[in-house]
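Quick note —
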Amino acid sequence: MLSADITSCKKLNDVPGVLILSSNNFQNLNPIHFANIFGTFANVMRLKTDSRFKGLLERAIDWLQRDPDSFQVRQIASITHSLGKLLIFDERFFKTIVKV
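Predicted structure written out below.
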């Protein structure tokens, strides 16, 4: 259900909707959700300063460090691509994926 809701927002380019969904379902997010959410953000430069976005990135990094095997290559690639499009270099994220 959550994946479908995220995809619906993504199709509408509804970044605020995706941020609300991710905030309201923070504890239920999984690697598939992270990849889908970050894909929604890929063309929105103003997110760099959004506290919800920063929290989501921190949660994804924490999960990746704690359970790297739960992330498939495609999910890591989607997040990495999205961060690249946003011109975000998060040293902690990139150091973590090098270890995976």
